[in-house]
Amino acid sequence: MNEPILKVATPLQTPAIKLPNMSNYWVxxxxxxxxxxxxxxxxxxxxxxxxxxxxxxxxxGTAGLWCVPAGHGREEIAVAVAHQxxxxxxxxxxxxxxxxxxxAAERVAAYMPAGLxxxxxxxxxxxxxxxxxxxxxxxxxxxxxxxxxKLIGRERGYxxxxxxxxxxxxxxxxxxAFGNSLAGIDHIRxxxxxxxxxxxxxxxxxxxxxxxxxxxxxxxxxxxxxTVAALIVEPMQxxxxxxxxxxxxxKRLREICTKHGILLIFDEVITGFGRLGTKFGADYFDxxxxxxxxxxGLTNGVVPxxxxxxxxxxxxxxxxxxAAGAIELPHGYxxxxxxxxxxxxxxxxxxxxAEKLEDRAAxxxxxxxxxxxxxxxxxxxxxxxxxxxxxxxxxxxxxxxxSAMSFATYLKCYESGIHVRxxxxxxxxxxxxxxxxxxxxxxxxxxAEAIKSxxxxxxxxLDFTLYLKNEQEWAMHQQSIAEDITISESANxxxxxxxxxxxx
Length: 504
Ligand SMILES: Cc1ncc(COP(=O)(O)O)c(C=O)c1O
Hints:
Blueprint lengths: L4 E3 L8 E3 L13 H6 L4 E5 L2 E4 L4 E4 L2 H4 L8 H13 L11 H13 L6 E5 L2 H18 L7 E5 L8 H6 L16 E4 L5 H4 L10 H15 L5 E6 L15 H12 L2 E5 L13 H5 L5 E4 L11 E5 L1 H10 L17 H17 L1 H17 L7 E7 L2 E6 L8 H12 L2 E2 L1 E3 L2 E4 L7 H20 L12 H19 L1 H15 L1
Parallel strand pairs: 5-15, 7-8, 7-9, 9-10, 10-11
Antiparallel strand pairs: 1-2, 3-4, 4-5, 6-12, 11-12, 13-14, 14-17, 16-17
Helix pairs in contact: 3-12, 4-12, 8-9, 13-15, 14-15, 16-17
The structure holds pyridoxal-5'-phosphate (PLP).
């Protein structure tokens, strides 16, 4: 027997569960010690469901990490990727390429708002954000304006984890551990206004233009607008807890950027590919930025890929103003437009075209909204926000216990077979666009039951050690195996043999 096997009794469904050794993997954006004490592991996924390691069906209320809009296990994508792997696995991304890269770019361009039809491929949302910022800086330089080099982001903005992205990003916890930020960065205020807009259904009506005008005041007061290269915002701020901009806000930002020659970048890593019931947030709000970044849904989450779409004039400026034979943009990744990602993106766009997933999302959004807002009045619920197929449920903060209520809700839902996401004191719901009405009911009913039972249990309800008992048993068992391996020389040898067997 090569792998640790835990024999478990009820309520687990399977007689034996194979557990991974959890020592080596440093789990990203995760409280590792806590997670490894009660791991939530998935072993399969199909449609709108995961299969957990203990063989339970877990309804995916988050489309993975906002990235599986067409549902899991899409055969069309698997076939396309498998075929591509066997045909052309890799072609050098610099100074040579392959036809599928051009086809993927053509398809992505056709999916973008009109005019944003020059496509740069990356491997993630973070890389897309940094690529967009670099393009903005280089664009002004190539146009003869090298002093236009400041970048403006927004409080509570999330643009991934690379240095550019965290500099313009506005989530303190993601910035403060990493030393000095980039120079020449500023932020505008975020548009969340719970005092005035709590429990708004969809887009809040008031305050948008005034808030956007603050951006202009800020750049006039603190910067010379002629020194600002770009403003980057998410049309709807997802990671920081579903912040829906008020009416007129994005339009006004567009006007201000145009007036001052500032590029407007929409980070559509979450809002792209149907999440709001339109192709992009730009379509939903009828505001066309100069640059759009995307990732996640581009390949339905199965192969890492991001894209940066720029207006044709921006691309043309590089082509027209660079010396003949020069590399116009010294930037790119080994895996930019890797063939399997192109195959996955094309197959994903085919699914969107065939199933009109954006329209499906739009058609469900009212139902989804009503289901989400049915939680109003439950204990601790301070605000509910929604747009398209996204909802955020914000809890009252508990002094000294940040995230305790949302984490307990998440764990309770997981126990009950629903995967939700918690971020700060907020639960975020963003199911695959293939979700059915009865599944929407199940998601919000389960969250409601979770909130009620946690509130009824008082302090014990917030004690996360009381949740996921099975998972905790697995983890303890796991730990004892790991300890055996470390202290015993022969066990060490045995462990190495296991590793070797896994390699062949
Ligand atoms: C708006 C936005 N930008 C960028 C990113 C980073 O994407 P990735 O994790 O693929 O680097 C995310 C991820 O959630 C996002 O929501």
